[in-house]
Amino acid sequence: MKGRDRFLTRVQPALDAVLEPGEPVRASGFAMVMASRGMHVLVGAAATLMSKYYWIAVTDRRLIVLKFQALGTKPVLERAVPLSSAKILKRKPGLFGTRLELDVDGSRYALRFPVQFKADAEAIAVHLSRQNASPFGRP
Questions:
Q1: What is the pLDDT of residue 49?
Q2: 3-state class (DSSP) for residue 57
Q3: Cα distances (Å, whole numbers) of residue 47 to 96, 115, 136
Q4: Of the chain's two ends, which shows fewer C-beta atoms within 10 Å, N or C?
Q5: How many CB atoms lie within 10 A of CB 15?
Q6: Rounded CA gap, 100 and 71, in Å?
Q7: Looking at residues 17-30, what average pLDDT do you find?
Q8: Which domains does the chain have, with CATH numbers?
Q9: What angle do CA 28, 69, 116 make, to 5 degrees?
Q10: What is the per-residue pLDDT across 75-113, written as a single tens digit (0 to 9) for each?
């Protein structure tokens, strides 16, 4: 996983600055929010400039969202919320990656995890699902 390791070396200092002592990262991965298909039709390849890039991390206590200003830059903290404030709205595995729609403390993120990060998306979903599971077996 050369690509993941490359991202992780860029992300790790920002992640370490946010983590509290003794707070292990349980799952993390690279995701993006892409412009809509309609926007691609209207402005063509320039629509890719409207994409946003994130590193999502789940710990025992929190969901951490780091945002890249542009690919190749160091990420900055966008949000760090308790797991109880983060919920999965939709989970859609696909041939070219996985899509997770999250409600993070009232803000909606429609994240696309590329195929190289598909396992990371599934791990993030599992950890968030476990946290938000009903003790009675029903949502």
A1: 66
A2: strand
A3: 19, 21, 45
A4: C
A5: 18
A6: 20
A7: 94
A8: 2-132 (2.30.29.30)
A9: 35
A10: 999 999 999 999 999 999 888 889 999 999 999 999 999
